[in-house]
Write a structure and sequence with these properties.
Layout: H1 9-20, H2 25-29, H3 34-37, H4 40-50, H5 57-69, H6 75-92, H7 95-108, H8 113-125, H9 129-142, H10 147-159, H11 163-176, H12 181-193, H13 197-210, H14 215-227, H15 231-246, H16 258-275, H17 278-289, H18 298-315, E1 332-338, H19 351-364, E2 368-373, H20 377-391, E3 396-402, E4 405-408, E5 411-414, H21 424-429, E6 432-433, H22 434-441, E7 447-453, E8 464-466, E9 472-476, E10 494-499, H23 516-524, H24 532-546, E11 554-557
Parallel strand pairs: 1-2, 1-3, 3-7, 7-10
Antiparallel strand pairs: 4-5, 4-9, 5-6, 8-9, 10-11
Helix pairs in contact: 4-5, 5-6, 6-7, 6-8, 7-8, 8-9, 8-10, 9-10, 10-11, 11-12, 12-13, 12-14, 13-14, 14-15, 14-16, 15-16, 16-17, 16-18, 17-18, 18-22, 19-23, 23-24
């Protein structure tokens, strides 16, 4: 397929683009001579089956294989057979064998624009982005200004987060293919990633107008409506995604519609949350659980995790659900928690002061901040619930936590001040699972920033708490690196999580009023014109210097672009 982002429509637009512009005509025309050298009936049958894009892929692969095995095909004719078998492998999602066939096709016929283009698409699908771009460059050298190839190269640039070059290629592709909805849709995704929501919406509107039966365009537009604080319009578009996907033969698909249904129900649930409609939000999250998806479908599985987390959030809090305030498309919110007054484990001196200092700094740069100091588990749950609900109407959500954090069986937990460890079940039940928090925040319309000064020590490290049926829990020092961030946010803003120190290491509480990490964070977080990751690099350098390399802050990011907490000074 030429388009990631789980786009089943992409393959058909790709085939239509290359066929209607004659890129593949030469690849099939050279087979005419093939029928002269093979027995007429067998050659005609296998040649027709091998080179038809409507042949079931397994049948096409078998027919092409027989032609190759005959050893009576050579030169450009053999290159064409390898090309068409590669097309069939592409339709099966077998990219390794697709690439192998295209390698052979290009050895035999290095002038084949179709083979360069298709191999570039396969390399893109296997995340070999630089090699993909090189193949598209070669295809464009031989066939300049072809809209389909430019579109494919734009997708690769988008994958590299090279938005300027992606946009330039999409602009030219739109000029070459003004009636292709897929090109408009993907340019809209690029503009959204660049923060141009009005331009993105204009492109998505055109994609919907040109392809009113294409659910991915409605999905993309619904996400933009969520980002611009228009949940009613978003709900209407997600309704259309579900209607089209559940329709009878509305669009041809090569894979199951599971991703579309999971995405539409999850995002419609988030839109209902933003509207304050608890019942319909919960109904959508429950619907997500009923959709079957492949085990390897990481985007669908990440969205399912988000739906589970949001459903648990709604079920754990029976307070009235009120509509989320948007405050405009640029609203930024923060929850700042400092837990130091522990009752059953070692208390910490600085988290409360750290939280207040960070909250003050965030307010100074325009965040709406809620503070929580020395919260028990019920208090933390309530503050997190309010924060995660408010996040449905924000463009940036930042969570700062200072206090005890712990790693239990490779998962990270934040410790309220009433944490206990009488048993394994009691320990996990009295803490908050960071993975669940991250899943609940994961959203394509928003940048999420999680900053944890929570590695000061694990008060239970070195012990093994007995679990159910005799299973032990390993309580390791420090925190574990997260397994995935922003898994559902394939074209959204993404998530960054910053740790006060490296995975498995212990951070210092500090001898002054603040920990070394929080002190450095407060000094640099308000610096104008610094990208978020550049700011954290300065924090890291200061902490390393102050602690004489005993503490090295660490971060993990799925951000798709630069994030500035403070704009450049005029």
């Amino acid at each position: 397929m030429t388009v990631k982002v789980e786009d089943n429509e992409g393959w058909y637009d790709f085939l239509r683009g290359i066929f209607m512009r004659g890129i593949v005509v030469a690849a099939s025309a050279v087979l005419i001579g093939l029928f002269i050298t093979l027995p007429a009936a067998q050659a005609a049958d296998d040649g027709t089956v091998c080179t038809s894009e409507t042949t079931p892929p397994d049948q096409a692969i078998a027919a092409c294989g027989r032609l190759i095995a005959s050893r009576r095909v050579s030169g450009k004719s053999l290159a064409s057979v390898h090309f068409w078998r590669a097309v069939a492998f592409n339709r099966k999602g077998d990219y390794a064998r697709e690439i192998a066939d295209l390698d052979e096709a290009l050895k035999l016929d290095p002038a084949s624009v179709a083979a360069w283009n298709l191999r570039g698409s396969a390399l893109y699908d296997t995340d070999q982005t630089d090699r993909a771009i090189a193949d598209f460059n070669e295809a464009l050298r031989r066939l300049p200004n072809n809209g389909s190839i430019l579109h494919n190269r734009a997708n690769a640039f988008l994958q590299k987060k090279d938005y300027a070059r992606a946009l330039a290629d999409y602009d030219e592709a739109v000029r070459q293919l003004p009636r292709e909805p897929l090109v408009w849709k993907n340019r809209g995704h690029t503009r959204q990633a660049m923060g141009d929501l009005s331009g993105a919406l204009a492109d998505m509107n055109m994609a919907v107008r040109l392809g009113p039966r294409g659910p991915f365009s409605f999905l993309g537009r619904g996400l933009i409506y969520r980002a611009t604080g228009e949940p009613d319009r978003a709900v209407a578009d997600f309704d259309e995604v579900i209607r089209l996907t559940n329709g009878d033969g509305v669009i041809p698909t090569l894979t199951t519609p599971g991703y579309l249904l999971v995405a539409a129900h999850t995002h419609r649930g988030l839109a209902f949350e933003a509207k304050g409609d608890r019942n319909r939000a919960e109904a959508d999250y429950r619907a997500v659980a009923a959709v079957a998806v492949a085990a390897g479908d990481s985007s669908s599985n990440a969205l399912k995790a988000t739906a589970r987390a949001r459903l648990a959030l709604l079920g754990s809090d029976d307070r009235p659900l009120v509509p989320a305030a948007t405050g405009g498309p640029g609203r930024r919110i923060a929850l700042v928690v400092g837990n130091g007054g522990y009752t059953a484990v070692t208390p910490l001196a600085n988290p409360g002061r750290d939280a207040r200092a960070v909250a003050k700094s965030l307010r100074a740069i325009g965040f709406d901040v809620v503070e929580g100091i020395d919260l028990d588990r019920a208090g933390m749950q309530a503050r997190l619930a309010d924060f995660m609900r408010a996040a449905t109407g924000a463009r940036t959500a930042l969570l700062f936590y200072a206090g005890h954090g712990m790693q239990i069986d490779g998962r990270n937990y934040l410790a309220p001040v009433d944490v206990t460890a009488a048993s394994a079940a009691g320990l996990t039940a009295s803490t908050l699972d960071l993975d669940t928090i991250l899943a609940g925040l994961d959203d394509q319309i928003r940048t999420n920033v999680v900053i944890l000064d929570a590695c000061r020590d694990n008060p239970f490290a070195g012990r093994t708490a007995d679990g159910e049926a005799g299973r032990g829990l390993t309580l390791a020092p420090g925190l574990a690196p997260p397994g995935a961030l922003g898994g559902a946010a394939t074209l959204g803003a993404g998530t960054l999580i910053a740790f006060a120190t490296a995975p498995g290491q212990v951070a210092l509480d500090g001898e002054g009023d603040n920990s070394p990490f929080s002190a450095a964070l407060v000094r640099h977080i308000g610096t104008p014109g610094l990208d978020l990751q550049q700011m954290l690099t300065r924090v890291r350098a200061e902490v390393v210097s102050v602690t004489k390399r005993r503490q090295v802050p660490w971060s993990n990011s799925s951000l798709l672009g630069e994030v500035f907490l403070v704009a450049e000074r005029p």
